[in-house]
Amino acid sequence: MIVPAKPEGSAAWMFLNPFTWEMWAVTGAIMLYTMLIIWFLEHPFNPEFGGPWKNQIGTTVWFTFSSLFFAHREKINSNLTRVVVVVWLFVVWILTSSYTASLSSMLTVQRMQPVEKDIEWLKSSNSKVGCDNDSFVRNYLEHVIGFKPDNILTVPNDNYTGLFESKSITAAFLELPYKESFHQRALQGIHCHHTYL
User: Fold this and answer.
1) pLDDT by residue (tens digit) across 62-74?
2) pTM
3) In terms of CB atoms within 10 Å, which of 107, 146, 160, 162 comes out highest?
């Protein structure tokens, strides 16, 4: 059985997929909140967080951002700031662990998921399926598997790709040599998910 598969989507922005947009927004909000708290607690006593506004903002942003990678170099004077930084580092540790685990699983699992479920789903939903014109497969589909004759289309001239693209058929049942031939030709246009009977 051959069914079209969902394309995996753009790989360029895949690094954003482990978190939802809401999670990215919450992470950014927590980072800004932490940045403001650190600035508020440190700028009166710490000369590294003092000076003109531009330097204060730059140092605070850099400190909070570099702590994502555990690479901050600014010295902290206030004990309250140390507590805030410890909580922030714990949050960063949880976020990086979750992000890494999600991204790893996305990259290692099969990225092509079939559009349709299985033969029983095809039969119960009265989906149209295709098979070769001069093949025993039509009789097998009708008498053994139990497809309705009206839902089985005989496909002349191996036009499966066109029928998949026009959504005239939901699945194709081919003999193994024809399936291999179709698969080699279809690599250029349609993605396939194969199930063997």
Assistant:
1) 888 887 776 777 7
2) 0.52
3) 160
